[in-house]
Amino acid sequence: MVQTQNEGRHYSGVAPAERARRRHEAVLAAALELFGTDGYAPTSVKKICKEAGLTERYFYASFRDRHDCLVQLYTELTGGLRSATLAAIDRTAGADLDSIADAGLTAFIDYLTADPRRARVVLIEVVGVSDELETRRHGVLREFAELITTVWTTADEPTTTVLTDEQRLTAVGLVGAVNHLLVDWLLSGRETPPSKLAAVCSTLFSAARQPG
């Protein structure tokens, strides 16, 4: 392929791929700020670009439209949420089940409450936007339910590999409870300390777990 004169040119020592990556991150940061404060519905592409300090040309170089931007932001945030939770669980390997659950729940809650914009995007702004996002959101909730059952079957009773329907449904219910507890926290003014939210969730998990 023949390059044009400007193609692949470095500006201020920054390669084109790196400039594109930085612009992509700037747009996502702007989307987090606007979707996480004003909300998704009133936020236009023009507003996102203004917040990011970029022209719309650069927006469309990375995103098909505003919806695609929300999808990518949601994917990034839930990926960070998953990584934080798994890292906390890994750090408590070998501990008793309650300690492992408490560590995972604390990390999960801390990731969202540390930046309420994350919580608003993940818990509220994506709800009902599109079939695609509803499918993704349901998939994320199921992944965390599966994480719960994995902890149950490997931490406390390593030889247990078969879950009952009641255990699976309980895990799904627990994820829903944590999700709603955080929505309530967000919409009620965020007055409850995150540590108290984590303590309540840990109590729920400990009480709800059924023997294999």
Polypeptide structure, described:
The chain is mainly α. The chain folds into 2 domains: 12-63, Arc Repressor Mutant, subunit A (Orthogonal Bundle); 65-208, Tetracycline Repressor, domain 2 (Orthogonal Bundle), CATH 1.10.357.10. It is 72% helix and 0% strand. The model is unreliable at 1-8 (pLDDT under 50).
Summarize, please.
By secondary structure, the protein is mostly helical. About 70% of the residues lie in helices and about 0% in strands.
Number of DSSP E strands: 0
CATH class of the largest domain: Mainly Alpha
Proportion in helices: over 70%
* CATH topology descriptor of the largest domain: Tetracycline Repressor, domain 2
The ordered string of helix (H) and strand (E) elements is HHHHHHHHH
The general outline is elongated
Number of helices: 9
Strand content: under 5%
Helix/sheet category: mainly alpha
